[in-house]
Amino acid sequence: MQIRTPACRTGRPRSAAADTAILAATREALVELGWSKLTLGDVATRAGVAKTTLYRRWAGKNELVVDAVAELFGELELPDRGSLAADIEGVVLQFAAILARPEAKSGLMAAVAESTRDDALRERIRASIVDPQKDLVLEGRARAQARGELPPQTDPAEAARTVDLIFDVVAGAVVHRTLVSAEPADEEWVRSFTRVLLLGLTASTGPSGDLPGEHV
Amino acid sequence: MQIRTPACRTGRPRSAAADTAILAATREALVELGWSKLTLGDVATRAGVAKTTLYRRWAGKNELVVDAVAELFGELELPDRGSLAADIEGVVLQFAAILARPEAKSGLMAAVAESTRDDALRERIRASIVDPQKDLVLEGRARAQARGELPPQTDPAEAARTVDLIFDVVAGAVVHRTLVSAEPADEEWVRSFTRVLLLGLTASTGPSGDLPGEHV
Amino acid sequence: MQIRTPACRTGRPRSAAADTAILAATREALVELGWSKLTLGDVATRAGVAKTTLYRRWAGKNELVVDAVAELFGELELPDRGSLAADIEGVVLQFAAILARPEAKSGLMAAVAESTRDDALRERIRASIVDPQKDLVLEGRARAQARGELPPQTDPAEAARTVDLIFDVVAGAVVHRTLVSAEPADEEWVRSFTRVLLLGLTASTGPSGDLPGEHV
Amino acid sequence: MQIRTPACRTGRPRSAAADTAILAATREALVELGWSKLTLGDVATRAGVAKTTLYRRWAGKNELVVDAVAELFGELELPDRGSLAADIEGVVLQFAAILARPEAKSGLMAAVAESTRDDALRERIRASIVDPQKDLVLEGRARAQARGELPPQTDPAEAARTVDLIFDVVAGAVVHRTLVSAEPADEEWVRSFTRVLLLGLTASTGPSGDLPGEHV
DNA sequence: GAATAAACGAGACGGTACGTCTAGTCTTGGA
DNA sequence: TCCAAGACTAGACGTACCGTCTCGTTTATTC
Asked: DNA-binding region(s): which residue ranges (chains A, B, C, D) (predicted)?
């Protein structure tokens, strides 16, 4: 999180409380004001901290918000719910619950929008938000294979492609449902979605069966 | 697009050329600068127009960018490619191609991010961008039913839910692939994605079959 | 007042009522808003006239305000009050009364300020405001000479200088009293002032007497 | 001059050089552009200072110009020239010389015009420009009394009234001569004016003599 | 137990963009 | 040809934040 590169040991150490206060203040400001009206000066004031302290640790609004939002997604877990379908439903619901919070909604999407022109920012998002989520997918698949619900992967490249696809579909669908359609990703929706996804995956990786309407 | 509500007929009429120039300048600025560094003053200059002319017609950056981006999505079409799978692949590829353009990328996502705190903006996005896309889904389904690839819908509420689900999955997946994973939604990916989606849908709406690992 | 130079007689004639309405609206706006916040658009609205009509007749704010204020000073008169002192007191009081009106106060001074960089404006002020006042001084002197209160002028250049001096002293003192000192130029003050002025003038034009403290 | 009221000692102190540069730039702009075309943005640029720095210290154009012009009038002095008449002539010439400078001309009059609707501004003008001048009048009178040219004042209220009258007459006449008549207040004019003023005053305060033409 | 060195709060600094306002011109349709 | 209405270009307004800087002060470590 911090910028300070060299191993510094002399001088007054940075206040750990400041970090916590700043990130909390950032989330508070996101809730009240949203991304576009959030200002670093205001965050500093809310955190009881000088603007310089803030700039000493984060390069700008984007980085700060990504870190503030990443803490929310750190709550994601994958308890064993007994079946692949239940595991997926569970984690999708968790993801949807986080995304329903106002501080995540506007903050995350705006950061993603900015990341289209800022590779460092995209990398930061990937490292602190996306990859941990993808790890859950991997963990879920491993568990399903252990249960015998899924066949063991043979081709690792193919396996990586499949994980990426699943991840884009899951995360994308929830995000789109929540932000664009502005409808809740509630239990019913998640069940329908999981059903389609799972059937599609098993049928796809299964007998390589005919697609309906594919005449050849 | 314009703000002027009442039917006014006196006074000098608004320049139609200005609208065109402003929207084109907005897209140009989006490409060069991205959302966050785009300024209305700069857009006005590029369009060869005074700032007041711009503010007379749009309430702010958000509205302007939505309109500018909406014109891009107006290009979407659904030519009959002979099968449901081909139709879906075709339209997803088109959607991905538009989303790959820099003016769409940062502009659209930022507008969506803002729309989480601005209902009017969300409505504008829905009306000018989302709903036309959803119409394509409806058209595609009607065509597939005519071909006999899909059974006719019986329950209209259920039908609407399905369309919404499809739409969130398709649009969400492409967006996530493009913006978050930052990988191209190319032909190969689209084929994999379409395969999963289509198999999932037909299996789901079909025999209401067993989900793998669903123990009850 | 109007700009139109050539003798035009074709087309729709200009509305005479518009002139009156515009000047009245200008004074009204001067009272309510003062010079600096007076805008030509607002004056046009008050007068129920289009901005173009206004610009067709006056070159700008300065010219308009000078004309509007000049009408106030047109009220100045010099009835014969029987003595030079009474005449002076009378006209000074009239002048002070006009200057006490808010539309005159801020409008006139601002126009004078502008005239320091605009010769045409100064000429306009001189012609429509200053010279008529100076004529009153001439008239008063002629009347006093007729009464025998003042000796007849012999040197016309000297006479002109004296009139100019008197005029600067009278007008300047009243203006300064009213605007800078912000005290009313009431009857008591006018009497004191007139006394000093008149004694000074008669002593000065008289025996060319010793100035007190002039040791040469 | 500054706005900041409480004695603050934390934070970066204000740059003293900025004040100097801003006031100098203001005078420069007054000379080149005059009051009405002077813009604070331009002054800031000339002073090599940000607009915010300017607004942090002055409330607006009026206040800034008053302070800039006040520095000019700070040059006024009253060296002992040996006689009351010489003292008056000297200080009037000085005053006229300042008023002849273009930065004083348009700036001062415009500020006075504005002050008719802004009491704080009038107070500022009085405190920083008018009162120091009035002090010169008091000093001159004290010196004349010491010389025996003037009788000692008995009634203090009457004395104050006289000083005010003198001041309005002197300042008003010079201003009117310079700005309205647009003639130089040169040595010859000043001598004539001083002669009239002084004769009037001595005659007035003296034997309370008959005004010419005052029949009773 | 200084001395050192960095972090801290406060707030001024040079900038940039904002969204509004006014100036003065131009373009309609109607009188 | 004038008029009312209102859109147009141009540019200043005063404000808000940005990210940097200079202060004086506070707190750990190191000598």
From this structure: 39-58
